[in-house]
Input
Amino acid sequence: MSDEHAVETPAHEAVTGAETTAPQSPAPQAPAQEPPVPRPRRRGPGAFTLLVLPGLLILSTVAGFLALTGGFPDDGNAAGSAPQDAAGGVNATYGPWLRRSAEACTVVTPSALAAQIDQLTGWSNGGPTTSGPQGIAAFTAADWKTWGKDDDGNGRSSPSDPADAIMALGRQDCSLAQQVTGLRTDGTVNGDLVDLTLAAYAVGTDAVTKAGGVPAAAQTYLGEVKALFAKYEAFDREDTSGGGVLADAILAPPVTTLTITSPYGSRQHPLTGVTKLHTGVDFGAPQGAQVSAARAGTVVFAAMTTAYGNRVVVDHGTIEGKRLQTTYSHLSAIEVGAGQTVQTGAPLGRVGSTGLSTGPHLHFEVIYDGYYADPVPWLASSG
Output
C-alpha cells in the first residue's frame, strides 16, 4: 500500500504506548483536549511529475532539433524538394546544360551524356574521397585540369558543380569523338561513332585503335550506357517547358532563296549516321552566296568550329523577356567579328561547306530562351 493511503497514528496514542510501570499517585481528571492538528502527509511523485513533465521535456527536445535541422528529414516527396525533369527523374536544371554540352559536336547527344552520368554515379554528387573521382561525372583531379572550366560563371571551377561537370564531360566526349572520327575516316577503325566514342572513354583511344573498333574490355561499359539511352531520350528533343512565342515574320531571310534541303527535327546525320535533333534548317544555296543578318543585333561569336565549320552567332536581345539568337554555319567566309553591331540584312559571311557538311548550304538556327526552335515560323517570306 502506498504511503498516501497510510493511517496516521495520533500523537496522544503514541505517548500512551510509551507508559512505564512506576507507581503513580492518582491524577486529577485531565481537562478535555482539542483534537490534534494532523501533520501533513508525505506524498510520492504525482501524475504531473510522472506523465506530463517528461512529455514536455520530450517536446522541448524535438522542437530544439527541428529548429537546428530545419525540419524532419526529407522523404523524397516533400513539396520543397528539388524540381524533377521528365527525362529520367533528373533535376530539371541539368537539362539545359546537357543540351548545351552536346552542342560541341554532332556525335554526342544529351541522352548519351545523361546515360554516362547515370552509369558512372547514378547522379550522386559525392565522391568517396577528396583524392578520388568527384562529382556527378566522376572526374579525377588530373582529368579536371584538362577538361574543367567555370561554365556557369559562379566564380569557381569544380567537378562538384553539376553544370561545370556536365560541360566538362561534353568537352571530353567530343574530343574523343573527333579522334575516333579521324580514325574511322582513314580506315584505322570501324564501327558506330557513338560506340567508338564511349569505348574510347572507357578504355582509351589507343585501345580502340589497337582493336580496330570497340575492344572487348569496353563492351560491358558500352552496353550499360546504351541501355540507359531511352531513359533520357527526352533531352534530345526541344524543351518547350518555358513556353515561347512563335512570332511570325520577325526575322528576315538569311539567304535570298529559302529552299529547305533539310528541315528542323530529328534526323540521321548524313555523315556520322547518328540520329539526333537537327537543331536548325538547311537552306540550299550556291557556294559564295551572301548570308545576311536576320535581325539587328550584336555578333557574339564568329570563328571556325569542328562540326559547324565557320559559324556566326548574333544576339538580338530579348523578346517578351526571353533572349533571341540566330546562328549561321558552314560558311566559306566570315565577314564580321565578335562584338560588332549589325542591322537587319547586313552581310555576315558567304555560303560554304566547312565543318561536317555534304555540300554548300546555310545551316540556320533560332535559339529562343536558351532552346532551339524551328526557324520557319519566325521567318518572313521575303526581306
Summary: DSSP finds nine helices and 13 strands in the chain. The first helix runs from residue 11 to 16. Residues 1-35, 37-44, 61-86, 239-248 have pLDDT under 50 and may be disordered. The first strand starts at residue 260 and ends at 262.
